[in-house]
Amino acid sequence: MKKYGNIFILTGAGISAESGLATFRAANGLWNNHKVEDVATHEAFLRNPAYVHDFYNELKLELNKAQPNPAHLAITKLQKEYTGANISVITQNVDTLHEKAGNQNIYHIHGVINQAVCLNCGHILETWGDVDTETICPQCQVQGMMKPNIVFFGEDLLYMNQVDTLLRKCDLFLSIGTSGVVFPAAAFVQTAKYYGADTVEFNLEQTSNNFYFDKHITGPAGTTLPAFVDELLKK
Ligand code: OAD
Q: Which end of the chain is more exposed for a tag (fewer CB within 10 A), N or C?
């Protein structure tokens, strides 16, 4: 393997599977038997905010308890020991396992579970406590305008300007544990490839995006990623 200068790491629910968190598209997926239309759309939130808040408050309890696994820790090792490279983690996950593992340069493009955003003033409230329709924004003092800082279907992804820049300049693109069916994240590999990056996919199976990957590393990320990182560090 050559020496890389800019590494873009895209992660999905599969990287957290070995931490005991369900993925989205497996049976008993992360929506916990809720319909996506009831908990992850703007319309659902307008229709029944209390229901949506309850769902994310419950999910928050579960995600708060989860601990990082060897795949998250392998990223920490890479960021610490692969000197001279910019290494960014672009995650679709709303859990905080990358943070708990000590990863740096993390972009939660689908939002993050321990934040709520005030729809009145834009203030981001960070909390592991419950947020509900009674919550008062600590900045503007308006009650009942807090929304979980989760990107619902139909909303724009977060950090897209930074992500676009990182995608154009990366020379190694790693995709870990994502099915590659939710856009625009599913198209990131295509952009990275277009701008000349080497592209590697880590998954239990080949995804529908396989055309754009130079290499597929099949197996649980908790095993395959630490091995890959050790190989990179040998160079
Ligand atoms: P998915 O549930 O669609 O896909 C998880 C992927 O991880 C699958 O391809 C699995 O084969 C793979 N996988 C499972 N266990 C693994 C392991 N131990 N090691 C490696 N791979 C493993 O989850 P995402 O691709 O993250 O969006 O889903 C993308 C988005 O769809 C989510 O962020 C969410 C959802 O709608 C929002 O919430 C906006």
A: C
Catalytic center residues: 110
d(CA 50, CA 55): 9
The residue contributing the CA closest to ligand 1 atom 6 is 178
84 and 119 assigned to the same domain: no
Whether the model pTM is above 0.70: yes
Q: How many domains does the chain have?
A: 2
Q: Which atom of ligand 1 is nearest to the CA of 152?
A: 39
176 and 145 fall within a common domain? no
Report the distance separating Cα 106 and Cα 117, nearest Å: 19
pLDDT tens digit string along 18-50? 999 988 876 655 566 778 888 999 999 999 999
Measured in Å, residue 109 CA sits from the centre of ligand 1 at 14
pLDDT tens per residue, range 110-161: 999 999 999 999 999 999 999 999 999 999 999 999 999 999 988 999 999 9
Residue nearest to atom 9 of ligand 1 (CA): 179
Q: What's the 29 CA to ligand 1 centre distance in angstroms?
A: 10
